[in-house]
Design a protein that fits this description.
The structure holds two protein chains of two kinds. By secondary structure, chain A is α/β, with parallel strands linked by helices. Chain A folds into two domains: 2-193, no CATH class; 201-335 and 370-404, Translation initiation factor eif-2b, domain 2 (Rossmann fold, 3-Layer(aba) Sandwich). Chain A contains 17 helices and ten strands. By secondary structure, chain B is an alpha/beta fold. Helices cover 50% and strands 10% of the residues of chain B. Chain B starts with 7 loop residues before the first helix and ends with a helix. The chains are: A alpha/beta, B alpha/beta. At the A-B interface, helix 6 and helix 17 of A face helix 10, helix 11, strand 10 and helix 16 of B. Chain B: This is Translation initiation factor eIF2B subunit alpha.
Chain lengths: 417, 396
């Protein structure tokens, strides 16, 4: 499949050169790319899910390595892996139920039946399902699902059934691929519409005559505020400009164009203004498993100011931003340093940035980090497409969206890089 | 257990004067656990759990080898008594089988976690059982686990281990499809495997925590914990560069043992007296502690001194990480320090203490969840609030 390979390489280059930006765009493109990987993947009769998972994982590792800071890529790869596992499981359960009936019917003339008791379909399905679940106290003492049990049950059918079964299997493989692609399409649709779903909840949170503060620009926040305005709420918005990229200017312009009462302030004025604010609403780059937030630089300061004045700090995040990893040293490891040209004008500062002068290294250093880490205790509420959640509840959402196997594998791959 | 309901003076009077009252209230409890009656813990005043810990992890003299020999010498008469009693309890010798002796036998092995010993003891109950139905076996096991639990109420992992195994016996769907004998052998097999599970859990925790130990960091540890040692050992094997500060861990001085083990691994280690924690906190990057038990609120019960370390670390914004196997999760919800059955340990002050002076001999304290950053368990890296979720899933 040279076609897919070239697509992958193209996307990897884009990620490396930071040509795609914003977690939504990245998430969407990753999902689209993985969909084509799946549709092009040729799969045999046995272990189709395994082949798909391997293919997606191989591509996923390349993508994650290309830009490890863009956590949305890893999130989508894990989501797709989870989808494959789930679809495979539901198909196996269905097939197992059918097979078991036939196995029981011709059980009497089956002489290779050893002392191993045939588990009922329900038991096998339960065992298989437990592999999808994250490990829990419940499964601590239970048997690891016996891999030998499954082939045994499926091979207990007589020879006469062999032909019909192979036909059944090929249709099953096609069905698996079809189902997975369908589910990935749903995922892409979810990513596209997560703004609307989050914005739908706006009226529950924004009330009449309130003052909302936000920093920088986020499409989710824009839609959220606009949705409240649509529902005839009148409120004012303070926009901190979000230096050094000044995306707050763009947001202010958009808000005014949509008829919202807007005040633009500098980042350094946040603390002075926060006492008049009823609620801080911001977007995020990623939400970590402990409820911490990777957000545009400057937000930790806003969160601290909000905490000082007991102003609710609300973070809007689509479910593709939920990252199942725990942050360790996030200020450094999950950060990215951007070009100094955003901070200062090269023409004016060219003298002090000159490597040739004096000691050999320039006297001025410019550090321009992209992200801040906001610890979970500063966040009052997360609003995702599934509703509002407490920071301590994030792990539960993550358990719903990802399977435990994928977290570990991905982490190992990341460590080896 | 509301021991300090009114004032402690009233409590004391109750202890001495109003004893008959108390007894007349308690009969339902004593009849419920008949086996416990016959096998009352001889010295219930002292926590057996912490005695064992001290025996396994404590350092008595400064010379390691000499003290190891001394420990062997010191404890041999007692262990002889125990082993002879357990030999007597062997089912073959005709005397009645005692789950407590079995448990004590297992517990003596320094490498075995308390919960593993409990589950092994319950497995021995199954093996020697003459029950012919699942129901009979369950009742027998319930009796045995109750007597074990009441024999040493201070050991949280004993209680948690018993509860976990009982839950497995009563609720596992896999057992329903089998006849009695294969179910019985399956139970025994799982119980035997539990030691392996416990070891694997420690390995998983060590792997999970590696991401959090970065080069050049300084780690404070308190007392001796097998899991924490495993974590640090793995980090040393992964060629991480880090420094460890060990507290002394009075009164058992288990910290000395840990520093000894770390020195063997060539990890730079520094010993602190327990009161030097706040003094050294500013050079520390993270605190690593084990746990005797993880309670439903997500807080931990651990060796005395953990609470104050967590408080100091919290006030200086240092992360506190707990390494604990998931079978230490217990269905307890202590509201304050005195809210648990007291686990007492005699403390040797070196000089005679006047009889009028009271000595605080409690061996453990409770650290509330707001002072803990993350828990490393074999179920994954958890925030404290996840613990109750796991427990609810298991028992409801």
């Amino acid at each position: 499949m040279p076609d897919v390979q070239s697509l992958v390489i193209e996307f990897v280059l884009k990620l490396k050169k930071r040509k795609v930006e914003g977690s939504q765009a990245t998430a969407r493109q990753t999902a689209v790319l993985l969909r084509s990987v799946i549709s092009q993947q040729r799969i045999g009769y046995t272990n189709q899910a395994g082949a798909l998972i391997d293919a997606v994982k191989a591509v996923g590792e390349q993508l994650v390595a290309a830009n490890p800071v863009e956590l949305a890529v890893g999130n989508i790869v894990r989501r797709v892996l989870h989808i494959i596992r789930e679809e495979d499981l539901s198909l196996t359960t269905a097939a197992m139920a059918g097979l078991n009936l036939s196995a029981v019917s011709d059980d009497d003339d089956d002489n290779d039946q050893d002392d191993h008791p045939v588990l009922s379909a329900a038991a096998v399905a339960a065992a298989a399902r437990s592999t999808l679940r994250p490990p829990s106290l419940q499964t601590l003492l239970e048997d690891m699902p016996d891999p030998a049990a499954v082939p045994h049950t499926s091979s207990s059918g007589g020879d006469s059934e062999e032909k019909s079964k192979s036909a059944d299997k090929s249709s099953r493989s096609r069905k698996l691929k079809h189902d997975v692609i369908e589910a990935v399409n749903e995922l892409i649709e979810d990513i596209d519409t997560c703004h609307e779903q989050i914005a739908e909840q706006a009226v529950e949170h924004i009330h009449h005559n309130e003052v909302i503060l936000t920093l920088g620009s986020s499409r989710t926040v824009l839609e959220f505020l606009y949705a409240a305005k649509e529902k005839k709420r009148s409120f004012r918005v303070f926009v901190a400009e979000g230096a050094p990229r000044y995306q707050g200017h763009l947001l202010a312009k958009e808000l005014v164009a949509r008829g919202l009462q807007t005040t633009l302030i500098t980042d350094s004025a946040v603390f002075a203004m926060i006492s008049r604010v009823n609620m801080v609403i911001v977007g995020a780059h990623a939400v970590m498993a402990n409820g911490g937030v990777i957000a545009p630089v400057g937000l930790n300061m806003v969160a601290l100011a909000a905490q000082r004045h007991a102003v609710p700090f609300v973070v809007l995040a689509g479910s593709h931003k939920l990252c199942p990893l725990y942050p360790h040293n996030p200020e450094v490891l999950l950060n990215e340093l951007r070009s100094p040209s955003e901070l200062l004008d090269f023409g004016e500062f060219s003298d002090c940035m000159d490597f040739g002068s004096g000691s050999g290294s320039p006297l001025i250093h410019v550090v321009n980090p992209t992200f801040d880490y906001v610890p979970p205790k500063l966040v009052s509420l997360f609003i995702t497409d599934t509703g509002g959640h407490n920071p301590s509840y994030m792990y539960r959402l993550i358990a719903d969206y990802y399977s435990a196997d994928d977290l570990v594998l991905q982490r190992k791959a990341a460590a080896s890089n | 257990m509301w021991r300090r309901s009114a004032s402690f003076i009233l409590d004391k009077r109750n202890d001495t004067g109003a004893r008959p009252d108390f007894v007349s209230l308690s009969p339902p409890q004593t009849t419920a656990s008949t086996m416990a009656d016959t096998l009352q813990n001889p010295n219930a005043k002292v926590s057996a759990y912490y005695q064992t810990r001290a025996a396994h992890h404590g350092v008595v003299t400064s010379d390691w080898l000499a003290q190891a020999q001394a420990a062997v010498g010191k404890y041999s008469p007692e262990s002889d008594v125990r082993s002879s009693s357990s030999a007597a309890a062997d089912p073959g010798s005709g005397k009645p089988f005692s789950v407590i002796d079995e448990f004590n036998n297992w517990r003596k092995q320094p490498d075995l976690a308390e919960a593993v010993a409990a589950i092994r003891a319950l497995a021995a109950v199954i093996r020697s059982s003459e029950a012919t139905t699942m129901m009979e076996l369950e009742i027998e096991l319930k009796k045995a686990s109750d007597s074990l639990k009441s024999w040493d109420t201070t050991s949280i992992s004993l209680t948690a281990g018993c509860d976990l195994f009982m839950r497995y016996v009563t609720r596992t769907s896999a057992l329903e499809y089998e006849d009695f004998n294969s179910a019985k052998s399956r139970l025994i097999e799982r119980a035997e495997k539990f030691g392996e599970i416990s070891y694997k859990a420690r390995r998983i925790i060590a792997m999970l925590s590696q991401d959090f130990i970065f080069d050049g960091c300084t780690i404070l540890v308190h007392g001796f914990s097998r899991v924490v040692l495993e974590v640090l050992k793995t980090a040393a094997q992964n060629k991480k560069l880090f420094r460890v500060l060990c507290t002394e861990g009075r009164p058992d001085r288990t910290g000395l043992r840990l520093s000894n083990e770390l020195a063997k691994l060539d990890v730079p280690v520094k010993l602190l007296i327990d009161s030097a924690v706040a003094y050294s906190m500013d050079e520390i990057d993270m605190v690593f502690v084990g746990a005797d038990g993880v309670v439903e609120s997500g807080g931990i019960i651990n060796m005395m001194g953990t609470y104050q370390i967590a408080l100091v670390a919290h006030s200086m914004n240092k992360p506190v990480y707990v390494a604990a196997e998931s079978y230490k999760f217990a269905r307890l919800y202590p509201l304050d320090q005195k809210d648990m059955a007291p686990a007492l340990r005699p403390i040797d002050f070196g000089v005679p203490i006047p009889s009028k002076v009271e000595v605080e001999t409690s061996a453990r304290d409770y650290t509330p969840p707001q002072y803990l950053t993350l828990l490393f368990t074999d179920l994954g890296v958890l925030t404290p609030s996840v613990v109750s979720d796991e427990l609810i899933q298991l028992y409801l």
